[in-house]
Amino acid sequence: MKISFAKPALPASGTVVVGILAGRKLTATARSLDKSGGGHLSRAMEAAAFEGRAEQTLTILAPAGSGLSRLVLLGMGEAAKLDTAAFERLGGATWSAIANAKDKDVTLVVDALPGCNVPIAQAAAHMAIGALLRSYRFDRYRTEATEKKDDKPQVGKLIVSTADHDLAKKAFAPMEAVAEGVFLTRDLQSEPANILGPVEFSEECQKLEKLGIKVSVLTEKEMKKLGMNALLGVGQGSARGSRTVILEWNGSKAKTPPLAVIGKGVCFDSGGISIKPAGGMEDMKWDMGGAGVVTGLMAALARRKAKANVVGFLGLVENMPSGTAQRPGDVVRSMSGQTIEVINTDAEGRLVLADVLTYAQRKYKPATIIDLATLTGAIIIALGMEHAGLFSNDDTLAGQLTKAGQETGEKLWRLPMGDSYDKLIKSDIADMKNVGDGRGAGSITAAQFLARFVESGTPWAHLDIAGTTWTNKDLPLASKGATAFGVRLLDRYITEHIETKR
Questions:
Q1: pTM, whole model, 2 decimals?
Q2: Which residues are catalytic?
Q3: Closest CA to 433 of 344, 356, 369, 366
Q4: Under CATH, domain 179-498 is a member of which superfamily?
Q5: Of the candidates 112, 118, 111, 110, the residue with the CA atom closest to the CA atom of residue 81
Q6: N or C, which terminus of the chain has less Cβ within 10 Å?
Q7: What is the arithmetic mean of pLDDT over 409-434?
Q8: Which residues are annotated as a binding site for Mn(2+)?
Q9: Binding site members
C-alpha cells in the first residue's frame, strides 16, 4: 500500500476515515460531515452504541449528502491520553476497517485535537505507519484457485489529509524505511523451510549490498578452520550446508567500535536426534526469527542512512536427524575453546550463538552486543506472547532497551541471572552442558550459557523472542503470522543511543 500526504480536503467520492473522540465528540471534519448530512453521523453512532473508544470503528455506507461510498468513524479515545504509540494503533485500526473497501484510494483525515500533546504532523505520520505495518500480507503462495479476488484487499493508496502535511511527510520518511525492514523480516520469517535454507538465506542477504551494506559469508570450510564446532555440530545432520553471514553498515564517520547485533538462524528445527513432537513442528520454519530481525534491521538502517556503525551476524543452520547428526552426549569444542556436553540436541540455538558471539568479539571488538533468538519454549510459559525476555549483564543497556520497547510497543521484561543459575549448567565431563538441571528456569539457564561466551566488561543483552516472533491472531500492527518483533525496538535503541548526533 502506498502512503501519501495532502492538504486538508475531502474527496468527492470513495472512502473517508474521520476521527471521533471518546463520548462521541466529533472532530472538525466529522462535525462538517454531520452537519451537511443532517445529523446522520450522530444518529448512526447512537443506533450502533458507538462511543468513540480508542480503536473502535463504525462504517456508514453511502452517507447521505456526501457523495462518498462509505464513511468510517474511528474511535480515538481521550485526546489527552493519546501518544505516538496510540496513534500507531489507531492507524492499524484504520487499516482493519478499510481492508475490505472496494475503493483503490482511501482518505484518512487527521484533524487537530485540542488537549492532545502530540503535534498534528507527528500524529498523522504515526497513524500512517500504523496503517502501513498492519497492511502487510504474505500471499506469495496463494493462487487464484484458493483466494477469491474479493477476499484480497483492494486498497492501493492511503491519502493522509492533514494540516502540516509537508512536516508529516518528512516525519514519515524514516518510519517508512524502517517499515521496509520490518516487511523484509516478515517475508523471511514466513518463508517455508524448503524454500529458505541457510544457503538461500545467505543469498538473500547478499542482495542488501545494493543498499550499501557490506556482506560477507563464511562457508563450512571456513568455519571449520576457525574452530566453530558448536555451530557446525548443529547442522551436521542436514544435507544443507551451514553458513555465517556478516552484514556491516558503516554510517558514522566516528572511529568507534561498532554495535554487534547477532541473530539465531535455525532455518528449520526438527530438534535433531532429540526430535520434537509432530504437532506444531511446522512452526519451526521461523526458528530463524532472530536472524530475520537482524537482516531487516540492517536493511532499515541502510535505507534511512543511519549515522551509526553496526555489524549484524547471522548463524544459519538446519537442525535435522540423520546418520550424521549430533547425538545427545556428544562433546564439542567451541570457537572460544570452551567445551560443551550436548545433553539435548533440541537446545541447539545457544550452540549456534556461542560461536557467533566469539567470532564477533574476536573479529570486530564491538562496544556492545545484543543477540536475538527464538531460544526457549520456557519464555512463553513465563511471559506468554506479550513480552520478550530480556537478560543482560548491564543495567544501563537493559534500561535503554526496555524503554525502546515501551516506545515501539515491542515490550521486554527483564529476568534474573546469577551464579546459582549458572551452576545448573555444570557438566561432569566438560566445561558446561547445553541445558540446565530439570525443567526449571529454562530461559535463564539458556542465557547463562550464552553469558559464558561474552567477554568480561562488554555490555551484552540477550532477547528471547520465542513468544513474540509469530502470532496466531491479528495484532494492532501485525496480521496473523510473522511479526518482525525486534526490528523497530532495536532501530529506536540505535536512534536514541548509538547514532552520531548531527
A1: 0.96
A2: 276, 350
A3: 344
A4: Zn peptidases (3.40.630.10)
A5: 118
A6: C
A7: 98
A8: 264, 269, 287, 346, 348
A9: 264, 269, 287, 346, 348
